[in-house]
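2024-03-11 09:14:02 DEBUG pipeline.ingest accepted 1 chain
2024-03-11 09:14:02 DEBUG pipeline.ingest length=219
2024-03-11 09:14:03 DEBUG pipeline.predict start
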Amino acid sequence: MRRSWRLVFLSAIIVVGVSASACSTEAGGAVTSGSTPTRTPGAPPAISLPSISLKTPILGGSWKAFDTLFGHSNCCLENGWEYTGKFGVTFTGVIEADGNYTSQPSDPNDRVTGIETAPTTRNWTRSQEETMVGQFLPPDAKLVQTKTVYDANHAAVGIEETYTSVLLAHTLPSSDFKNAKGKLVQAGTFYVYLDDGFGAVDSSMLGTDESYVLMYSGA
């Protein structure tokens, strides 16, 4: 009986010792692991939304991407390039937000907000014009509206198309999207002007600022 009592007593001591050791280990772990990261209550984690690559020569891409596509040796006539395109010698110029029409940007990675393209030796057909303009549209562009553009003499001079693009909305600041009156519109909205030119294509435009797109239309 005495021997059994001693075994029970020793076992109890061992159990208490193990428990105390475990508590000590947990407490030590809490101290050595460092402070717990803090996060503002209710703030969701940052999410990287898909946008247009700087390396892609489309609306929202960089000036450098266009220079790579058309060749720096063909630059820079009015912030553009003259090169041999799909339908003959072509001029394509770009503009960046807060940029100008006559010189390249100081930062070649500036985002392009407007594009002008036009034939320089022979006229394009409407189909060719649509092909040339189409290569610069964001891949997720959705057509919202099409309307005829009239000049100050009420003559039809071309067609204006309105598009939206989620990629473009994620790429450019909301302040870049404006209508012809300078009012802000939904982010991701952009415009395309397809020129009739009395049967001959003169200059086709696309951009996030409607006043830029219609600048040569006479509207």
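2024-03-11 09:14:41 DEBUG pipeline.report Confidence is low (pLDDT under 50) at residues 1-38.
2024-03-11 09:14:41 DEBUG pipeline.predict end
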